[in-house]
Amino acid sequence: MSQFIAVEKVNYPFPAKPKVLSADVQQHYVAEIKRLLVEKNAKLIAHYYTDPEIQALAEATGGCISDSLEMARFGRDCDAETLIVAGVKFMGETAKILSPEKTVLMPTLDATCSLDIGCPADKFAEFCDAHPDHTVVVYANTSAAVKARADWVVTSSIALEIVEHLDSLGEKIIWAPDRHLGAYIAKQTGADMLMWQGECIVHDEFSAQALLTMKHLHPDAAILVHPESPASVVAMADAVGSTTQLIKAAQTLPHEKFIVATDRGIFYKMQQAAPGKMLLEAPTAGNGATCKSCAHCPWMAMNGLQAIYQALTDTSGHEILVDESLRQRALVPLDRMLDFSAKLKMQVMGKV
Ligand code: SF4
Fold first, then answer.
1. What structural domains does the chain harbor?
2. Rounded distance, CA 333 to CA 338, Å?
3. Each residue of 250-271: pLDDT tens digit?
4. Distance between Cα 240 and ligand 1 center (Å)
5. Full-model pTM
């Protein structure tokens, strides 16, 4: 049985859209960034939702393009001295928590996430304290302080398996902060989950009604949905999963056409994985006039080439620092997830 708690509605401080660079200026920054990455023994780690030129640069320089779980693993395991994380702030913090000996830079420290903003550490701690018999599971899209209060951290690529595992042990769960992902997992697992009511402003905007109209226009298309989307959208999906799982679905499903309900930044790698297949953006409920209705995260869009160059030339205002005692507390639930994931991988490979 799942329960929901009410939280205040949050007003999000949407950033201004970044300046569009000319092709010449882009080329200049690309060349300079390549030089600086070598000079500083640095790796660029980019999320699937960043703009195509950032992902292409990560790819061309031996960095990483992935979901937040793989970004964390790559940052921890690579031998670079400096990590430059193109994503949103919690991703930089996660990299620092796992790799305290490395310098972790971000193009901008102002790139945040509506899930992180919607789950303040003090209120969340009060909520956990009021339910001491619950195991606290938080999504990776949270601050270091919220992670430090958790028993487990999960990403969307492993949340289902971890909640299933906890449910099999008879544990009652506090889930935070994404209400749609939480509801999806509760439905799949039947776990007893007490939910925080956060939302991703990108996925929350996908509209089942508009999707139905689009499906009528493209009856041969399969619908791919990230579970941060509303339940009515998830219910229409041919495949539901994390960014990596959706890319895999586009590759393996027999369809030639896909309607994709997640941030359109994913198209860069999805198109590479499924060349020749047609990818269509799922419609949002808004009228297209705001960042809330464009299927592209306004904070991910802040990761421009100019900002990466600035971070590599002058680290002040770009470096992620996490208080050491907080880091050690946040490391425990993160390590738990990474260990669980490693064991799961071994099981799938038949090695245990
Ligand atoms: S796409 Fe949604 S979940 Fe991802 S960083 Fe942006 S607001 Fe957060």
1. 23-113+300-321 (3.40.50.10800), 115-200 (3.40.50.10800), 203-281 (3.40.50.10800)
2. 9
3. 999 999 999 999 999 999 999 9
4. 17
5. 0.92
